[in-house]
Description:
By secondary structure, the protein is mainly beta. It has one helix at 283-295, and strands at 6-11, 13-17, 21-27, 38-43, 56-61, 64-72, 74-79, 84-87, 92-96, 101-108, 116-123, 134-138, 145-147, 153-158, 160-161, 164-165, 176-182, 187-191, 197-209, 220-222, 228-231, 234-235, 239-243, 248-265, 273-275, 278-280.
Amino acid sequence: MSIRPVLETRKAQATMEGAGVHLHRAFGFQDPTELDPFLLFDDFRNDTPAHFEKGFPWHPHRGIETITYVLNGTVEHGDSLGNRGTLGAGDVQWMTAGSGIMHQEMPAGNAQGQMHGFQLWGNLPAAQKMTDPRYQDVEAKEIPEITDDDGTVVRVITGEFWGKRGPVDGIAADPQYLDVSMPAGVKKTFKIDTYRRAFAYVFDGQAAFADASAPTGVLLEKEVMGEEVNIRDMSGDRTLIRFGKGDEVTVQAGERGVRFLLISGAPIEEPVAWHGPIVMNTKEELQTAIRDLRNGTFIKPAH
């Protein structure tokens, strides 16, 4: 067993998307090999309706999958294939754009005006870039939730963990997507298959993620009397932790506990040609997609 080293920790950066939605981007539009097969991760938690209510009007996608996870509020969605629906608190939507789809996502706050959630983009391999689009809408009640003896709670959105399998299936990157809550002071190790690329994203509380070069000792610093005085190298709200190779991630929760996403997937290791919401393998394929958009041939006719 080997602990995955922490290659980098960084704060998500404020940006705007759609018709003026204020959000924080942990990664995206940078080096696509960094977290292959994942391309982009947005944190769209917001408590000001004016900063999100104009939403994400009609826009195209091709060659990727988008994974939307809602914590609070709702997201109404519709697409060019006639699909319509609403995601509520705890719900997940896994959209395979494949050969091309036009869709829109319109967020609305809860009773307190909160719209909280995340969107992750996963790449598709060349063999599946032009597959038929599909949706997997998963209600909160369908997502397995496991509580360990130490109070740790894990929601298994996709992949297998502690003997439970998430309800989302048939995904190209063979991902594991976990929502993890740990009580104050708990230390825990999570196994992740060595072949996967992995990252964590802290969105509540704080935690220290052990590095292979500095395991247990760096996490807690104690005085002679044995009282804990601080926890060094803590990662707090809106922090991305990118891991290197290994098969374990060790986490030490801070004094208020921690909640984070732990996400991993099998790298595709193919060339990436990327323009906005369209991700292909070559510049020529990208130009074809843009030409299809202009010519009105972006969407396959219904069978």
